Amino acid sequence: MRVDFHTHIIPEDIPDFVEKFGGGRWPTLEKTCSCGANIMVEGKVFREVTDQVWSPEKRIEDMDAEGVDIQVLSPIPVTFSYWADGQQAEEMSKIQNDFIAETVKKYPDRFIGLGTVPLQDVEVSIREMERCVKDLGLKGIEIGTNINGKNLDDPDFTKFFEMAEKWEVPLFVHPWETLGKERMPRHNFMYTVGMPSETALAAASLINGGVMEKFPRLKVCFAHGGGSFPYILPRLDQGWKVWPHLRQTTELPSYYAKNFYFDSLNYDPLNLNYLIDRFGYEKIVMGSDYPFLLREIPPGKVVDETVNLTDEQREAILGRNALEFLNISVKEEMKK
């Protein structure tokens, strides 16, 4: 079974929140043709997209062509809208969560859903997380790497992580609003340099800030192979050793990093082998970033090209690990 853990989706008829609430930062979808659109932010084209991003039927067509059995659907990070009023952003979250849940319900053998929550208001986020998993049947929550410049170890978010652990809600951390973005416009460095660096900062914050020590059963998966985090982990360990006055954990960062999951989207068997050597093949889930330009085609290509994997390891990375991360019975999924 081939499960693509990292894919994004948006409703075709997402409301115009700029018109409803004011403020230019709400993303809107402007159709350019029957099979294409622009995601607009502040009157500018943020991203050109095709019907792959809203049509489950088109996605299934692509999945069949590329050998993917199941996609895990998550919102596009630009829709997080953490900058907005919490209750207004809750409306944006609900629209997407309902759409994802409806898509899964329509095609239960092809899709699994993740929700989104307005983390700028933790109480509202907890309320929507509960609705996602208990009412809508979504299997986890996608969150950003920072919330309005606050790292994930900020005390404001402690209650959210506490409830995610209590309710056994897996979290998928995706970069957005990258650090140093003012230096990134040329060469699209936001996507190739900024996002990996931002992801590393988020992972390091969860560890060094004591979140993973406080909530050891919390399930967290990082996009894009964890960005640069796996490669700076020895440096984080060294910092922990030489600056004892800064320590907020009882163990080295690498001790807590063993609990993290990572998608396989790093394009190179050398990098995938490094992830496996450092964290174990059980912690790697296949992900492609469908349907965007930087996606891996076909999904799982880097896994297929990593020739030294055993059949058991390959099978786990391509599908089983994702289902286990999402607390889904592998046997039940195989019966569908």
TrEMBL record:
GO molecular function: aminocarboxymuconate-semialdehyde decarboxylase activity; hydrolase activity; metal ion binding
Pfam families listed in its UniProt record: Amidohydro_2
GO cellular component terms, A-Z: cytosol
InterPro entries to which the protein is assigned, alphabetical: ACMSD, Amidohydro-rel, Metal_Hydrolase
Domain Amidohydrolase-related: 3-327
E.C. designation(s): 4.1.1.45
GO BP: secondary metabolic process
Swiss-Prot/TrEMBL keywords: Decarboxylase, Lyase, Metal-binding, Zinc
Pathway where it operates: Secondary metabolite metabolism; quinolate metabolism
Family (UniProt): Belongs to the metallo-dependent hydrolases superfamily. ACMSD family.
Subunit structure: Monomer.
Record's protein name: 2-amino-3-carboxymuconate-6-semialdehyde decarboxylase
Record organism: Sporosarcina newyorkensis
